[in-house]
Amino acid sequence: MEVKEHCLGMEGAMREAITLFHEARHTKVPAQQAMAEQTLEKILDQCDAGLSFSYADGLCGIGVGIEYLLQEGYVDGDANEVLSHFDALLFRIITARPAIDTSIAHGMLGIAYYLYYRLKAQSTSDAPQVLHLKEHLIYLIDWMGDALQDPAKDKNLYEFWFILVLLLQLDVFNAKILNLLNYCGKEIALWKK
Question: Distance between CA 183 and CA 157 in Å, rounded?
């Protein structure tokens, strides 16, 4: 498996760690489990404030990977505790609304995927951290709506569609999500003409 050098997200080390955890569970070889755990520790040791937020090579990809490993029982821990620092950094980005890419790999849709993954297993909870995640998801959905309707913004409508369908499952701000899906559908139909 080719891993991009210095890439910690889903296009790099986190993808490698997940693969190692899968192999270790399948083969039941202790050395593979140890290698998977070491890879995850190395990733966590390299997480700092200067790391990219992106899904491909930064915090969103690492966070989704950690959430996946926790949800699937590969590692133990409380996701809300383990990922609280990631949440805080991403909340700042959502609040600031910087001029960033819209893609899943490197932009705002990667943040949306992170929030989806964080909420999918606990969407009915009313724990303070979950309510904070939902609050910022609403802000992000508004930001996505503005980006969708900005003619100057380069965007992949299929990626927006994919993320919006996922977010719809969380039952948070569904009226707005349905409006955005309708908008995407109309725009995609125009492209096909």
Answer: 10
User: Residue 131: which residues within 8 A CB-CB, separation 6 or more?
Assistant: none
Give the chain's radius of gyration (CA, Å).
17
Cα 149 from Cα 62, distance rounded (Å)? 30
Q: Are 60 and 68 a contacting pair, CB within 8 Å?
A: no
Q: Average pLDDT across each block of 10 residues of the chain; the chain has 193 residues. List them in order.
A: 69 96 96 95 88 95 97 96 96 97 97 97 93 98 96 92 97 97 90 70
Q: In this structure, are residues 181 and 163 in contact, taking their beta carbons and an 8 Å threshold? A: no
Look at the alpha carbons of 115, 120, 126, 127 in this order and tell me if their dihedral is positive or negative: negative
φ, ψ (nearest 5 deg) of residue 180: -70, -40
Q: Rounded to a whole number, what is the distance in angstroms from the first to the last CA of the chain? A: 40
Selection from 157, 163, 191 nearest residue 177 by Cα: 163
| pTM for the full predicted model | 0.94
Dihedral (CA of 47, 62, 111, 102) sign: positive
Closest-CA residue to 74 (of 83, 82, 65): 65
DSSP for residue 98: -
